[in-house]
Specification:
9 strands; two-stranded antiparallel sheet; seven-stranded mixed β-barrel; 7 helices; 325 residues; extended; 33% helix; alpha+beta
C-alpha cells in the first residue's frame, strides 16, 4: 500500500504522527468503451460549447448554476480563501459512545500507521478508545475538503472513517407504514424461532461476489479461445417450481423453520428460500394423490390438480364411445 496523506492526530497536548492509507479497494472489473464495429477505443475531448475549441485542464474553472439560472464561476484562488482545517493535522473534537454513531453515516475507511520511531502515543490512544468504548470524532482534510470522521481502534490499528454530514442523509417517511398492523405474538414467536435456527457468527470470508467471479471466468475463457467476440451460449437452467400461495404467515414461517432445521441435520445450513424451492415439488405431488387434503396453503394447488385430472380423463371417454359405435 502507498500512503495518501501524512500528518498527526492532535490528542489534547499530545501529537500522534500518522500515515494514512485507503483501507478498502474495489475488486470490480473495469471496462472502457470501444466502437462495436471495429473495436477502436472511444476517447472524450473537453470541447467548449461557446467557441468549439478543445480546452486543456489548466484553463478549466468550476461553475455553479443556481435554481434561478445564475451561473457563478470560481477559480482556484477563490477556494483557497475558504476555511479548512489544518491540512496536516487531525484534531480530535470529542469522544462519543460508539453505539451512538448510526452506521448510515459511515462513508470511506482509512488505516492510520504510526509515523515515528516510537509508537507509544499511537498505542496509548488506540487502547484508550477500546477501554472506554468510545469513538473519537475528528476533522480530516483531504483533497481540499474538510470532513467529519470517526476514529476507532480495530485490532490494535487506528481506523479513520469519514462520515456524512447530517444534512446529507435524507429524511424518509413511508405513509404505508403509518397504518401498518403490528405483528401478532404468534407471528413474532415463529419469526424469532426462524432467526434462531439461522443464527450464526459473521464470517465475511464465507461470502463471495459470484458475479465478479463468473465475469472473470467469462473473460478468461474468451481470452483462452483467442479473443473471440462471440460469447458462449449458457444453457438455460430448469424453471423454478412455483410455490403455492401463502395465505398464512405463521405457516410460512413454520416451513422456513423446518427447512432450516433440516439443513442443520444434513450438516449444511441451506438458505430458507433454497430449501423451500426444493420442497415445493413434493407438496405438489402430495396434492395430486390426495386432492381432498384440508390444508389452507395447499387448497389452490389441489384445485388445479383436480382440474388437470378431469381434463385428462375427458378424451378417454370419447374414444370409448367411438369404439362402441
Amino acid at each position: 500500500m502507498r500512503s495518501i496523506w501524512k500528518g498527526s492526530i492532535a490528542f489534547g497536548l499530545v501529537n500522534v504522527p500518522v500515515k494514512v492509507y485507503s483501507a478498502t479497494e474495489s475488486h470490480d472489473i473495469r471496462f472502457h468503451q470501444v466502437h462495436a464495429k471495429d473495436g477502436g477505443r472511444i476517447k472524450y475531448d473537453r470541447i467548449c460549447t461557446e467557441c468549439g475549441e478543445s480546452v486543456p485542464y489548466a484553463e478549466i474553472d468550476k461553475a455553479y448554476d443556481s435554481d434561478e439560472g445564475v451561473r457563478v464561476v470560481l477559480a482556484d484562488e477563490d477556494f483557497d480563501k475558504l476555511p479548512v482545517a489544518e491540512k496536516h493535522e487531525i484534531p480530535v473534537l470529542q469522544f462519543v459512545p460508539t453505539e451512538q454513531i448510526d452506521p448510515i453515516l459511515f462513508e470511506k475507511s482509512y488505516y492510520l500507521e504510526p509515523d515515528s520511531s516510537s509508537p507509544k502515543a499511537y498505542t496509548l490512544l488506540a487502547e484508550t478508545l477500546t477501554q472506554t468504548d468510545r469513538t473519537a470524532l475528528v476533522h480530516f482534510t483531504l483533497r481540499q475538503r474538510t470532513r467529519l470522521a470517526a476514529l476507532r481502534n480495530r485490532d490494535g490499528v487506528l481506523v479513520l472513517q469519514t462520515l456524512l454530514w447530517p444534512d446529507e442523509v435524507r429524511s424518509v417517511a413511508f405513509p404505508v407504514l403509518d397504518d401498518a398492523e403490528p405483528p401478532k405474538q404468534k407471528e413474532l414467536a415463529m419469526a424469532e424461532m426462524l432467526v434462531e435456527s439461522m443464527a450464526d457468527d459473521f464470517r465475511p470470508d464465507e461470502f463471495t461476489d459470484e458475479y465478479q467471479v463468473e465475469l472473470r471466468s467469462l473473460i478468461d475463457d474468451i481470452i483462452a479461445r483467442g479473443g473471440e467476440k462471440v460469447l458462449p451460449v449458457t444453457p438455460a437452467g430448469e424453471p423454478a417450481a412455483e410455490d403455492a400461495e401463502v395465505l398464512d404467515l405463521v405457516a410460512a414461517l413454520q416451513r422456513s423453520v423446518d427447512a432450516a432445521a433440516a439443513g442443520d441435520e444434513s450438516g449444511a445450513a441451506a438458505p430458507a428460500r433454497g430449501a423451500a424451492a426444493k420442497k415445493t415439488p413434493a407438496r405438489k405431488s402430495a396434492a395430486k394423490k390426495t386432492p381432498a387434503k384440508n390444508t389452507t396453503a395447499e387448497k389452490p394447488t389441489a384445485k388445479k390438480t383436480a382440474a388437470k385430472k378431469t381434463t385428462e380423463k375427458a378424451p378417454a371417454k370419447k374414444s370409448t364411445a367411438r369404439k362402441r359405435a
